[in-house]
Amino acid sequence: MTEWYAPWAWLGTGDAVERDVVIAVDGDRIVSVTTDVQPAPSRARRLGGLVMPGLANAHSHCFHRALRGRTNSGGGTFWTWRDAMYVVAARLDPDTFHALARATYAEMALAGITAVGEFHYVHHAPGGDAYSNPNAMSDALVAAATDAGIRMTLLDTCYLAGGFDTPLDQMQLRFSDGDADRWAERVSAMTSTTEIRIGTAIHSVRAVSSDQMRVVSAYAEEHGSPLHAHLSEQRSENLACIQAFGCTPAQLLADAGALGERTTAVHATHCTTDDISLLHGHGTSICMCPTTERDLGDGIGPARAAADAGVSLSLGSDGHSVIDLFEEARALELDERLRVETRGHWAPASLLRAATSGGLTSIGWADAGLLRAGKLADFICVDIDTPRLAGADPEHLLEALVFGAIAADVRVVVVGGRAIVSEGRHHSIGDVPGELGRAIAGLIA
Amino acid sequence: MTEWYAPWAWLGTGDAVERDVVIAVDGDRIVSVTTDVQPAPSRARRLGGLVMPGLANAHSHCFHRALRGRTNSGGGTFWTWRDAMYVVAARLDPDTFHALARATYAEMALAGITAVGEFHYVHHAPGGDAYSNPNAMSDALVAAATDAGIRMTLLDTCYLAGGFDTPLDQMQLRFSDGDADRWAERVSAMTSTTEIRIGTAIHSVRAVSSDQMRVVSAYAEEHGSPLHAHLSEQRSENLACIQAFGCTPAQLLADAGALGERTTAVHATHCTTDDISLLHGHGTSICMCPTTERDLGDGIGPARAAADAGVSLSLGSDGHSVIDLFEEARALELDERLRVETRGHWAPASLLRAATSGGLTSIGWADAGLLRAGKLADFICVDIDTPRLAGADPEHLLEALVFGAIAADVRVVVVGGRAIVSEGRHHSIGDVPGELGRAIAGLIA
């Protein structure tokens, strides 16, 4: 049994920050959390700063990390950006995918992310053939997350069409299993471990027809798997869907049995009020990706309206123009302020819950996200003695954290009771920038 | 003469990053900038990373730093936030003001800010009496900037009324000189030095009547001073102005002779197309404060429309919810993307110019902002070997910097040829978080 002591901790629920907290861990689980322990037990490992549950990155396309800082010159839209993204996707093979994912997950680890939902659709070889090991690309991701020491839910993604009644284009062929039955057959060969869980995804209503969505939904239901889907990120998806089927993408998902309590709609930027009611009625949550929605010009989504309707929220860094869940959390609030020109739409703790338990529940790790006996021992320590957070008093520490902290303030990261980051450095991946640089250089001609 | 060598440098103009750059400095000026110098001269001081002109924070209310992370719970608007801000303003005296300004300017120095425009209106004692030294509060700011080693333009602010045809309230009394002639008399006692320049400001059309604005404008004209004014940050200012005078705040400024080439309109969030033409016609620039405009729910201003009209832009961290000029620069672009749902509105170098030469010109330091012979030797070095910028190649380094760098990546800061920050640590203020914490604790009951 190991004990950790922190002068401050947010336990993952409530609005308060606790003092003098001792977290006892046995194996990969928390066995007790005790507050107001004075003096700190001499046997405890001391964490200097504020301890909180590990951050959950509920929506990631790890290979998009190669595009950071490369697509911002000139004009364009989501769709022209997508062309640039496809060029990188076309160059991936299991080895380069592993190298980039490993470095990107290490960047996430340094940012305090202890679990990631990887929305994975580059599972076939260029042109669409299966690799000799049909899950070679998935295995590369599993190895990468294992190397980086973070938990992953592999949201293995069904992607069959290029649009409503549109075949896949040349670049998209490698995203497809041909049909949902073959997708299910491939996915069923993957097995969960203590750190890796297998989930499912429908890329979008553009990429999977209703009858094929039913197959995915049934598979997810049968296996009790998380099911994610991009939803209404762009207005044109709504328009095309209404033109093709006379209903919104959310309605199309609902009609195909894809909405449920284990379903997460990603973005939901252009969902209507009725769509939100529909999601809420099915117990479906929404994953917002605010820095990506800024980057891609998606627009400001109806996060507050969804929360008001009772929809749970999670957060993802998605395209990884930034990997900083604190920035995602405050962006949710700040972008709503820009939209409606008033302040204070979420309590700071609510924003942090979206970045922790909300995300973990969305990707199938409801046994993490809280500092509580019986939960997985996944927690981080954030330095609060920085120019950014200096001046925060205990009453405002949580607020200061949400609105002032940055990923680089994370000093210690513990996953399953084991420290993977200390003093802001990754234990097993010594040169994260170097690995990122080499992995990306290999993909960018 | 001192020489500095950097493997990479952006010289402050153009879109390119230069290689192997040697900057020769004599006294506080650059005497030469040479590119492609190989090998690096052994006598040169080596800067590891990307060197660029120092960042300019063109709009600061330093004491607002005490509010960071304290006003985000509950709802409210700009106006309820202002009440909280007034409580802090009421507690300031020359000593506490100095302590907070010194620590805040040190935070700016660490963030690579080499010059600040301090929009200063807390110049009288609570209740409105003059201090025995009428410029005691201004002197506190001058001492603070000098301690922190950064340049300052003291934008001494005329603030006479609580609104259109509304007297000052109890909290606002200390902002007022009584009338603009007395404001001018007080300001004229201040003198510029090599690091401190005296500028002028009209708080807003709400706070200074047209006839009094004329006095300030004439003073600024006579002294060749920068003249700043808050403009149309809130819709209600526009509405009240139109109701009172039948014209927009920008027109009111113009009619009072307050617009000109040395004038900067701060925010301009709710300026009309005609207002922008008016500003452009007078050669007036706009200072956007995107993180504050997010924080206060001001809305997304017409920065792109203004730039299209030919208006120069600068950036400020204003309320200091964040002190990170890279974040301000990218926020300008990203918030425009949210507004219009397309990408790529500014070239990365244009965003950086707003954060450097644009701001320096706005606050009266046109002799800084470029790495060029004859200019002030104010420059910074940004670490590019970080998880954030890893993977950027030379062609995309500037873009990666704008969209990926953070204030904490600044390693070296040189002002007037003298390093004030090395290895990310301030030379003369050893414990910036500690000073911030103590200064703020003294003001927050």
Describe the structure.
Two copies of one chain form a homodimer. Chain A is α/β, with parallel strands linked by helices and 445 residues long. The first copy, chain A, is built from 14 helices and 17 strands. In chain A, the strands form two sheets. In chain A, strands 1, 2, 3, 4, 5, 14, 15, 16 and 17 form a nine-stranded mixed sheet that branches. Chain A has an eight-stranded parallel sheet with strand order 6-7-8-9-10-11-12-13. In chain A, a hairpin with a 2-residue loop joins strand 15 (410-415) and strand 16 (418-422). In chain A, helix 11 crosses helix 13 and helix 12 crosses helix 13. Chain A is globular. The first copy, chain A, starts with a strand and ends with a helix. The mean pLDDT of chain A is 97. The interface between A and B is large, with 72 and 72 residues.
Short description:
With 445 residues, chain A is α/β, with parallel strands linked by helices. Chain A is 35% helix and 21% strand.
Uncertain runs of chain A with pLDDT below 50, 5 residues or more?
Answer: none
Strand content of chain A: 15-25%
Considering residues with a beta carbon less than 8 A from a beta carbon on another chain, report the largest interface and each chain's count.
Answer: A-B, 72 and 72 residues
How many strands of chain A? 17
> Structural class from helices and strands of chain A?
alpha/beta
Between the first and last Cα atoms of chain A, what is the distance in angstroms? 50 Å
**What is the 3D form of chain A?**
globular
Mean pLDDT of chain A: 97
Largest sheet of chain A: 9 strands, mixed
Radius of gyration of chain A: 21 Å
Helix count, DSSP H or I runs of 4 or more residues of chain A: 14
Oligomer: homodimer
Helix content of chain A: 25-40%
